[in-house]
Design brief:
4-stranded antiparallel β-sheet; about 450 residues; globular; mainly beta; single chain
């Protein structure tokens, strides 16, 4: 039997490429800048910056949500004796909202097991849904729901959260590493799709992607998917690796607007490629998409997809990195509704941008983010050099937008900071968040850019 490349130490190292802490910098040591960066909105927060220290340990933003009042929800982790969920809410102008949680802050460790957040969404009732997993080793996926004031919604799951026990759902396999990553809300009934990665049955050591559906009470949907409300699939053959890190809904493509599109990376025998898979609303792969519901794209190196975006016309954008341990460049690919590369985008459907940066690999935490504006322009935030972290803008066709910032890049000089998340306010301004500081002195940090 083929031995998987994903023996745990190797899996742990490679997975960090997607969810890593950058060694590159965003904000300088005194939370200012040696020069005013292009497009930086200095009216935001205090002199253009917002920094929040949690009472215990270090913290970092992983996700940003913006509500209908343009309030900012920063969601990430806080580490003291264990890693736990950390949330903060701010006004539209970056001032901590003390009406949220306790003094503007919320932390939760879900029974002391520790928690690593990966994604968050608002449901149709304005509640905050967060996905992630227990412990840094990814013992079990967790989905939790909070009311808009930051209190845990105890009507959801068990006491406010749902924990998936893979060994009880998938039969006799010895599933030991499972992580939930992406989240999406189904428009038709407010149900949730959740995707992630599991190490599969220990008898084969395969790493596989999974997607599950939860109803509004936080219970697995069944029937409608398989008998357990869960679909687990492999892009390659037995012994292959298929890692799934983000999720979006096929808004107007081959499906009905309720179909989950999973994005991640698949091993091709020598390196990793972008991978997409499209599921029907009953949990089976959509055979009208790509080859039997699956697509892979090779940029010629190790390619790690971190973000999936779907358009109203059914097209799909995949964003991530391509490169090697020495440094990674931005990689974008756009697909037609049937999974074929869109020849009107970039070069034959693919675009790259030189963005080389040495990285420190650490765990699996999201290292960058991408977002698409109402005008179709694409923003990518992440590590862009040893002394700053850059926001890059592309035109809708995949070319770099030289009218933005300095020839397409806008940045803040820094020492000890990172951007991990992006979100748009209603006027099109871009809120970016991550951390500032080093080691045990890292804090939540936000900055805003004009479009």
């Amino acid at each position: 039997m083929q031995k998987s490349k994903w023996d745990f130490p190797v899996f742990f190292i490679i997975l960090t490429v997607i969810f890593l802490v950058s060694a590159c910098d965003l904000f300088n040591e005194d939370n200012g800048s040696s020069e005013t960066p292009t497009n930086w909105d200095e009216t935001f927060g205090t002199d253009g910056l917002t920094t929040t220290e949690f009472p215990d340990g270090q913290s970092q933003i992983q996700i940003i949500l913006i509500d209908s009042q343009d309030r900012i929800y920063a969601i990430g982790w806080n580490y003291a004796s264990t890693t736990q969920l950390a949330m903060a809410r701010y006004s539209a102008e970056g001032i901590l909202d003390t009406a949220f949680g306790t003094g503007g802050l919320v932390t939760d460790d879900f029974g002391g097991e520790g928690f690593e957040p990966a994604d968050a969404v608002f449901d149709q009732n304005g509640k905050i849904v967060v996905s992630g997993f227990t412990g840094q080793d990814g013992t079990n996926p967790i989905v939790a729901r909070y009311d808009s004031d930051g209190s845990l919604d105890t009507a959801f799951g068990t006491s406010g959260y749902y924990t998936l026990e893979f060994s009880g759902v998938l039969g006799t396999g010895g599933y030991t590493t499972e992580r939930a990553f992406g989240l999406a809300v189904r428009a038709s009934d407010n149900a949730l799709y959740v995707n992630g990665t599991t190490n599969g049955d220990n008898s084969s050591s395969e790493y596989q992607s999974f997607v599950l559906a939860l109803d509004t009470d936080g219970a697995l949907l069944s029937p409608g998917w398989d008998s357990d409300g869960l679909a687990v699939n492999l892009l390659g053959s037995a012994g292959s690796e298929d890692l799934s890190f983000d999720l979006a809904l096929d808004d107007a493509g081959q499906g009905t607007g309720n179909q989950p599109v999973l994005g991640g990376s698949a091993y091709n025998g020598s390196d990793y490629d972008f991978s997409l898979s499209n599921y029907t609303t009953t949990g089976s792969l959509d055979s009208s998409f790509g080859t039997n519901g699956k697509v892979t794209t090779d940029f010629g190196a190790d390619d790690f997809l971190i973000k999936v975006h779907t358009y109203d016309n059914g097209r799909i954008l995949a964003a991530g990195y391509t490169g090697s341990d020495g440094g990674y460049d931005i990689a974008l690919a756009r697909y037609s509704a049937d999974g074929s590369l869109d020849s009107t985008f970039g070069s034959a459907g693919m675009a790259t941008y030189s963005y080389s940066c040495e990285e420190n690999f650490y765990n699996y935490r999201k290292s960058a983010d991408a977002a698409v504006g109402d005008d179709g322009k694409i923003y990518f935030a992440g590590a862009g050099g040893s002394e700053h972290l850059t926001l890059v803008r592309f035109n809708a066709d995949g070319s770099i937008d030289t009218s933005f910032g300095d020839q397409g890049e806008s940045y803040v000089e820094s020492s000890g900071g990172t951007i991990k998340a992006l979100a748009f306010q209603s006027d099109g301004r871009i809120v970016a968040g991550g951390q500032v500081g080093y080691d045990n002195e890292r804090d939540f940090h936000l900055v805003r850019f004009d479009p």
